[in-house]
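To whoever is covering the structure queue this week,

Two jobs came back overnight. Logging them here so there's a record in the thread.

Job A:
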Amino acid sequence: MNGPHYCADVIDLTRPIKSKKIMKNNSAPSAFSSFEIRLEEFVDLEEFPIHDLTSPIREMLVNDCRKDLEKWGCAHIPNFITSSAVQKMRDEAFRLINDSRRAHKFVNPYLTEDDTTLPKDHPKRFFEERTSSFINSDLLDRDSILRKIYDSDVMVHFVSDCLNVGPIYRWAEPLGRNPYSVMYDGDYFPWHFDGNDFTVSILVNESIDGGDFEYAPDIRTPKNENFEDVKSVLRGQRDKVRVLSLKNGDIQIFKGRYSLHRVTKTKGKEPRIIALPTYVTNPYLVNRPHHAEAFYGRSMPIHHERNLERLDDLTD
């Protein structure tokens, strides 16, 4: 087992949140109306006519994504977001980067405390050091392109079609519904499962090296943790692991609730910044308090008020 046998929680607040910025952004509307969102701001509709349900191009794109999601638990569309929109998101992220929440923690894949009643080689006792940051969703600019992408009904419908799951909803989670993940030189985001159903990743700034997305697709199911296969991946077995190297403007549609995944250590002066619009099948649920604290540096009253039992039987 790598790492210590305990779950240490040390929050680095060297990048404090500025109260004025929070007040300014919290005064923004919670969502854009459909008439306020011009799809052309972030998608080339000739190349990706996601708005046209009669388009054979859209049908082919959806079918390709469904096949990849069925086979690999992940779909990848290169150059989906226009370069101008990527630049605006990059500019926003760098404006807000000093307000990001940086968490330095030892975590297991389930973000739970150590359970000393279990064998030492149990996956729940596999802890790794996580060093990465999030620009939480409540910090985004009033006119954020990322917010527009997330609030677009057309995007929700397109993602739902690709997943072949519906209805899906925007997440009620106030901190992690559409954040930016930031990884500096030497940062590592260890193996974990997501607390939400589906995530769309949009890379907006590549690191010089490293920062690869690795995942073991559908390694568990809603009714089976499959601890033995999880343990084999954590011990370095690579036969179930796939690797995806994203480029700026690429999007990835991913079923992170059931696929063990991580981001390898980043290298170089350029931080790896990725936008994470996130969707769910239950519009009421948010992160569990320990998920919010592990990922976004804090929990809020809503995380405790809505800490209900999930429909699946999974640990987290």
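Job B:
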Amino acid sequence: MTTKQAVNNFLKNKSIAVVGVSRDKKKFGYAAYKGLKDKEYDVFPVNPNVDVIDSEKCYANLTSIKKKPDGVLLVVPPKQSEAVVREAADLGIESVWFQQGSSSDEAIKFCEEKGMSVVSGECIFMFAEPVDSIHKFHRWIWKIFGKLPA
């Protein structure tokens, strides 16, 4: 279960690799990349099928990023997440956020066994400040119903 401490730890990261960034501006992978950049994070787009996103180099994998990111946001299918967290652990990355729909029990268990800080089942836009109106409203609803990480 995700804790408030894990959320806060992730958001303290200055540089974040977004694995699963998309060229399609309507997809969440692109929205996450752009949203974190707009919130002034140093963001590394990762997608092996894309060379450039918004005039910025897109990386094939975490290993190809010259400066090790502090954290990894996963926006890929669960099976892909399992390989990515192994790569992250090999690189010494200790902070992972599984965007909703990207986690698997195996990937989470691996992270926990490696002592990595894990956020799973939460939308990063509900927590990364400043939170916009729709996500702020969603967070407020979750707070009322006791669904926010404690």
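Note for Job B: The beta strands are 15-19, 42-46, 52-53, 56-57, 71-74, 95-98, 117-120.

Please reply-all if you pick these up so we don't duplicate work.
Q.
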